[in-house]
Amino acid sequence: GGWLGLLGGGQLGRMFCHAAQSLGYKVAVLDPADECPAGMVADLHIQAAYDDEAGLARLAQTCQAVTTEFENVPADSLRTLATRCRVSPAADAVAIVQDRIAEKTFIAAQGIPVAPHAAIRSEADLRAAPDALFPGILKVARLGYDGKGQARISTRDEALAAFAEFGGVACVLEALMPLDYEISVVLARGFDGASVVFPVARNVHRDGILAVSTAAPVQSDAAHAERQARATEAAQSIAQGLGYHGVLCVEFFVLKDGSLIVNEIAPRPHNSGHYTMNACVTSQFEQQARAMAGLPLGSTALLAPAVMLNILGDIWYESATATTQREPDWAAALAVPTAKLHLYGKHDARRGRKMGHITIVAPTLDEARSDAARVAAALGMQAPE
Ligand code: ATP
Ligand code: MG
Ligand code: MG
């Protein structure tokens, strides 16, 4: 028992609270919102800005260890906390992954490929960017998520316009890559440096937002299995290189030619790892709590194939043009007995907002897929690919 602390009050924090509480811990959440998904279920909600001295002091006094559920917390807040209690991940690791320029530089220095890219700090940088980066994606270096702060551009002029639109903040311009598919690796690494890796998830995005994640036992397809092994190895070497403690996710692109590149790193549990809550011996959130508390990490074994569908606010609206909201028909979704529903307690169902997810766990991948299609139909969601 004891207290564990969390910077950030979103859904990742809420699911962390549930996992930590079932291990016998109390959780204190620091978040500025007066109502937030994690704050509602935490044992203590410290309502303060992420860089508020008094709030941070209270969090550190209350807790034996603190983590973050949000990659955009000021790294200096983690530094401040670390003078008073155990903090994972460390400020230095978070500082790297919260800046796309530092992140890509770090990954490439580990000998792991990333998309061809250029740091863009001025219009001059854009004018000097190699032709090979067009068509490309201009991404703000800091604070983007769910495809926000990104613009797909085909020409230098479009890139200049997008850069101005972003207010001239530091960006990365990366070449648009020929993706075959996307995968991610979630791992947990303890303070003793030992790590455990979850099964690779295969991910489908729509409009820059994760829509579907699938996890299944390693395929008999040799090329596919080999890619999964390479991704797992790359994720472990990234964690080691960062001196990382806690849960981390690495997103990868598998290109049309079969090569593997890293897209980005998240210094926390990840949406593509939500399937672990229902389909693995230990969930990613339980690993986060275990790692911070210095407990042994649990088995990451996959119990059965799983398909996770994200639930966005869109399904609260009857049509693309509707303006009034109504509650989705959860009973219809749960009529599929392999479906496990997780809602985050958010009240305002804005379009594109992550409201919950539903994981289908079935004896075979084919069954999981066809049940997922039934769940999607029941909720009026696009059929999973
Ligand atoms: P997240 O919510 O995962 O943090 P994000 O806003 O940081 O998202 P990215 O992961 O950079 O965004 O990109 C979102 C998605 O856009 C990717 O998963 C991929 O589908 C697509 N994408 C991003 N960069 C590229 C690229 N260079 N080439 C092709 N597709 C890309
Ligand atoms: Mg991101
Ligand atoms: Mg991403």
How would you explain this protein's 3D organization?
With about 375 residues, the protein is an alpha+beta fold. The chain is about 30% helix and about 25% strand. It contains 12 helices and 18 strands. The strands form 3 sheets. Strands 10, 11, 12, 13, 14, 15, 16, 17 and 18 form a 9-stranded antiparallel β-sheet that branches. A hairpin with a 5-residue loop joins strand 10 (about 180-190) and strand 11 (about 195). Helix 1 crosses helix 10 and helix 3 packs antiparallel against helix 4 (about 90-95). It is globular, with a radius of gyration of 21 Å. It starts with a strand and ends in a 6-residue tail after the last helix. The relative contact order is 0.12. The model has no long low-confidence stretch (mean pLDDT about 95). Bound molecules: adenosine-5'-triphosphate (ATP) and magnesium ion (2 copies).
